[in-house]
Amino acid sequence: MPRLVMKFGGTSVANLDRIKRVAKRVGVEVAKGYEVIVVVSAMSGKTNELVGWVNETSALYDAREYDAVVSSGENVTAGLLALVLQENGIEARSWQGWQVPVKTSSAHSAARIEEIPTDNFDAKFSAGMQVAVVAGFQGISPEGRITTLGRGGSDTTAVAFAAAHSAERCDIYTDVDGVYTTDPRVTRKARKLDAIAFEEMLELASLGAKVLQTRSVELAMRYKVRLRVLSSFEEMSDNAGTLVCDEEDIMESNVVAGVAFSRDEAKMTLVSVADRPGVSAAIFGPLADAGVNVDMIVQNIAEDGRTDMTFSLPVDQVARAEKAMAEAKDSGDINFHDLIADTEVSKVSVVGIGMRSHAGVAAKMFEALSAEGVNIKVITTSEIKISVLIDRKYMELAVQALHDAFELETA
Amino acid sequence: MPRLVMKFGGTSVANLDRIKRVAKRVGVEVAKGYEVIVVVSAMSGKTNELVGWVNETSALYDAREYDAVVSSGENVTAGLLALVLQENGIEARSWQGWQVPVKTSSAHSAARIEEIPTDNFDAKFSAGMQVAVVAGFQGISPEGRITTLGRGGSDTTAVAFAAAHSAERCDIYTDVDGVYTTDPRVTRKARKLDAIAFEEMLELASLGAKVLQTRSVELAMRYKVRLRVLSSFEEMSDNAGTLVCDEEDIMESNVVAGVAFSRDEAKMTLVSVADRPGVSAAIFGPLADAGVNVDMIVQNIAEDGRTDMTFSLPVDQVARAEKAMAEAKDSGDINFHDLIADTEVSKVSVVGIGMRSHAGVAAKMFEALSAEGVNIKVITTSEIKISVLIDRKYMELAVQALHDAFELETA
Lengths: 411, 411
Known about the structure:
Low-confidence stretches of chain A: none
Distance between the termini of chain A: 34 Å
Oligomer: homodimer
Largest sheet of chain A: 8 strands, mixed
Keywords (chains A, B): Amino-acid biosynthesis, ATP-binding, Kinase, Lysine biosynthesis, Nucleotide-binding, Transferase
Number of helices of chain A: 12
Domain ACT (chains A, B): 268-350
Structural class of chain A: alpha/beta
Radius of gyration of chain A: 24 Å
Number of domains of chain A: 2
Catalytic activity (chains A, B): L-aspartate + ATP = 4-phospho-L-aspartate + ADP
Family (chains A, B): Belongs to the aspartokinase family.
Mean pLDDT of chain A: 92
CATH architecture of the largest domain in chain A: 3-Layer(aba) Sandwich
Strand order of the largest sheet of chain A: 3-6-2-1-9-11-12-10
Number of strands of chain A: 18
CATH superfamily of the largest domain in chain A: Acetylglutamate kinase-like
Strand content of chain A: 25-35%
Protein name (chains A, B): Aspartokinase
């Protein structure tokens, strides 16, 4: 029988009434003939409570104990869902990570799944089990200690099970009903996508469309797991949500899939840096050490052996970056005339695998922004994405203009 | 190095401040040179919350899933205490039941501990571990499922670890400071006992002095584990609390150790029962089936082939008992003229291993009650206990009189 993985996040299992709704959805898939593996998160708020207690014990806590404590929330949900499924007449049982076992690395609180043997479930499904309820987010290290995969790790658990069991699909139930062409709060013309390619999803996710954990999408891409994102609060239907899949599985798509943005960016420019081999390392090394997440980087053509270096970063890291640069200058590691920070910028990006085969996307983007009088401060491009930094006050205007220009309202 | 087991109940670990107090107490024992095994319960209220959720899922829930859910509370406390101990500079780690492993029977939610291998801890203690924090109340079945030992099972976990590790002592920290000669609310003359024999403790515990789980005392008696009951809310001292130990370890003791009582008892009499072989089974079989906990049983001498059968039971089970007896009469299984229930009685008992070697304890007891005008309705005796049923209104008076008569105020 085909296998299906269903994953339910914290708000979907926040209390017993919601767990009962989840059980009904699972029952529908069982009735269709699937062998179902359900991956659950902790009831919403529970993990935060546990993390809060751990943080109270010590600033430098033992990550192994953190994992032992924090993983308990998922165990509760898994047991309760199994009980409700049984009450509905479905053969179900719960599995904690160590029982499967979900074998992970020893990198506690950020462990990577290394292997999920399938013989355990195979035998139980053959013996009549209809649903395996798995506590997400957790595994067991080679030393026999409990590990966790990091926040949002239940998505990764779900995809890993889908890959190991060659599941027909991995349905991620969440509190949004799919992936949109852009944030509907910025333009009401935003449209839910029926399908999106893994690569596009990765670019959109890392740009702030927080629907799926980036790691889970990477894993799905590697193992070609068909992911579906859908809402646990809407009626079920076969074409609900958004399918995240291999680009070959998308019959026809727009050149641009969506417009992403990041509101609170800053732009820093080191004016007149001595241009010598190793200068980039001298600049970005200290920034990385200071925990600054540099995003876009642009270097001007050098004149008279000096150049300007511009980069973007989250606006709340500007002070840290300025301190790191001042120290690097004082210690003589780098030399620059001035440091200019612009804290009133936003990043807007268009993303689409269609760009690979269609020329003129950049030109069309710049034209649309120009027509609205939006000045572009920095540009970076990748194979399937073009990003610009603009003044923050134009951000909504820019997103709306690009959404119109690439006709994202219509499929 | 000598090993010590310390067990902390739910109120002792109710929040992080209390867990920090617990860590200090553990630190004191570590400083004395003990290798310490700490057994913890769930933070108070947590287990009830989990049990409540399970009860909401189904009336006839799967006990395996109940155990998976309900055991999670202890895991949280164990991890948190290990973290606080580490913060105090102590080498500590937490262990869940399956990690030790605490091998139990498959009787989910009422499992019995079958084996606790010690090699795991032995190796870790040798490698520098100072404290093993064990999640109480749980184990693992031969099938690899999580089991629990039933409510209060953490006491049993602690004693089982003490037995397996030949611990010097097993200290049970609770919210009372020891075992008393009787309930201090009944007489202010009640005195805390420095030591009490296992057999006495068993009689006192089952009579309602709810300090220790009966099973844990039985286990301690079988393996000669020296138990100490003491309060986690008082200052530490070497002779705090009450030592529960083998009678040989008690140097000198009173003939009577304490006066126990059970307030809400009832007395039922089947009048003029046909006295034939098997009549007791015909009466008490249906009562057991109806869930009635019969305690004292007295049968009069038969006259003309008929007898009166009197027994005591908790007052809230009288209706059930009457129904069961009426049905048994209707079906012809037993035959009696009348059924009389007296719901206004209490049981008072004197308990002491000294009775074995001292005659006249019963006489002294009856004399003391008689001097106060207390009429005795039923008497039963065992080797170390004499119990009487009396009118409830005299209960406090009887306890006080017996406490005085046996001079329990003075050691």
